[in-house]
Amino acid sequence: MSTPKVRWACDMDKSVLLGNFEKRGWVQASQDEDWNFYWASVQTTRNIFSVDTGYRLQDDQIINHYPNHYELTRKDLMVKNIKRYRKDLEKEGSALAEKDENGKYIHLDFLPITFLLPADYNLFVEEFRKNPSSTWIMKPTGKARGIGIFLINRLSQLKKWSRDSRTSTFAAPSAKDAYVISKYIDNPLLIGGKKFDLRLYVLVTSYRPLKCYIYKLGFCRFCTVKYTPNTTELDNMFVHLTNVSIQKHGEDYNPNHGGKWTVHNLKFYLEGTRGKEVTDRLFDEMYWCIVHSLKAVSGVMANDRHCFECYGYDIIIDDNLKPWLIEVNASPSLTSTTANDRIMKYSLINDTISIVCPGGEIADVRWNKVPSKDCYGNYELLYDEELAQSDVLERDSKSRIGMTSLAMRNRDTKQRPTTTWK
Fold it and tell me: What predicted TM-score, i.e. pTM, was given to this entire model?
């Protein structure tokens, strides 16, 4: 008897998706037919999980967003959740929340100083006045692709924006009107004199316990114009914003490479210019920041077992090789700007499907979501909370019977599966 084919549904006419479905011999679900695998837009996901219009998903159905993914992917909520996570750890007396003599988090300082406007306006003004020559970046909370972003270095600019956009007072806005304002990273690491950021893909298959994978084929997005901290260039988005949707309109945009560099190339460049040890530490710090941003929302995320999510993380590295988390995208672009881009995104979707639908067969959400390593492709396990907790228990019991931590580590590295990138 032949195995039934996976029936897929999709809201996007993207070749990197459709090609992967066809390659597996999956069949498209018709309007009146149930689907097994849905690559949906966030709006469709909202409708499917809506209390009024939604319906109960079956054990053989999986979808590519969590019901309230916006807790991580909306700029204001991401900031709110990370701030709350740090405060909670502080209350618990966790070593993770340790601060230095200036009151800065030692281990969890990966978010630029950020305020929500208009709610935190007075707090922002207080901070701004400590360093009046600083530059800040304003972003609407619910928009993507660089839309509505601008830089300021004077309070009068903010007041003018407020007047122009609404009224002279900071009235309570809807989520669509709300902005976040963050201290601008004005000392970015430059390559060839140009600013860039990293787009890293992270797959989450469970929030409680947390299980996530990092995709090895991320890329850097470069500005087309050389960076200058000169305040006369604050309005020049070709200097400051790396979004391809903005840079492709620049005179110096190169459609062959699309202003992109692979993460592998970045690693080689940094190992050559800064050394391997420093480069490895930078990548560890980036992975640390990703894991803790996910832990920050794991308590509030609706951990529906029918869901998985492939997030697009945007990270900027400063010239001290410190990574800063800028934002997380729920629907990272699957549009290809170059041939290499198309190959990479096709591979990303292929490897994502291989982990959430091993063997290309109809998923069963009752299984424990532990695919074999053969399914990983270009993903590697970033963090597995269950395995990490069992490691801690094992270490505790071993230390009680007198084994040294070094001996334990040496033995464990030979025998145990890796629980995290460390």
Answer: 0.87
**CA–CA distance, 353 with 77 (Å, rounded to integer):** 28
Q: How far apart are CA 49 and CA 55, in angstroms?
A: 7
Question: Which residues have C-beta within 8 Å of that of residue 344, sequence separation ≥ 6?
Answer: 217, 219
- DSSP E strands in 17-174: the ranges are 27-28, 37-39, 62-63, 114-117, 136-140, 150-152
96: which residues sit within 8 A by CB, 6+ positions away? 89, 107, 108, 292
- The sign of the dihedral angle between the CA atoms of 336, 341, 346, 349 is negative
> Where do runs of H (alpha helix) occur along 235-304?
237-240, 244-247, 263-273, 276-298
Q: Which DSSP state fits 417?
A: P
Q: Buried b vs exposed e over 91-122: b needs ≥16 C-beta within 10 Å?
A: eeeeeebeeeeeeebebbebbbebbbbbebbe
Which tens digit of pLDDT belongs to each residue from 321-373? 999 999 999 988 888 878 888 999 999 999 999 999 988 888 888 776 678 88
Q: Which amino acid is at 71?
A: E
Look at the block and give the residue holding tokens 């924006």.
Answer: 161
